[in-house]
Write a structure and sequence with these properties.
The structure is a single chain. This protein is mainly α and about 70 residues long. Helices cover about 95% and strands about 0% of the residues. It is built from 1 helix and no strands. The longest helix has about 70 residues. The radius of gyration is 31 Å and the shape is rod-shaped.
Length: about 70
């Protein structure tokens, strides 16, 4: 009888350990996905900033050309 109780306790402990490992793996995957999404957002924002700077540069060049044509 005592052996059966020990075996049941060991099985329960193993199941709990497996569940904890699965939860840790899932959390790691979620964290990795969040980090990837943040990196993608940062890259997109940098690209947008670059486009805005290029647009600003183009506007400045056009203004300079117009001013030089008038003068």
């Amino acid at each position: 009888m005592f052996d059966i109780i020990i075996i049941i306790i060991i099985i329960i402990i193993i199941i709990i350990i497996i569940i904890i490992i699965i939860i840790i793996i899932i959390l790691n995957i979620i964290i990795i996905i969040i980090i990837i999404i943040i990196i993608i957002i940062i890259i997109l924002l940098l690209f947008l900033l670059l486009l805005l700077l290029l647009l600003l540069l183009l506007i400045i060049i056009i203004i300079i050309i117009i001013i030089t044509c008038i003068v």
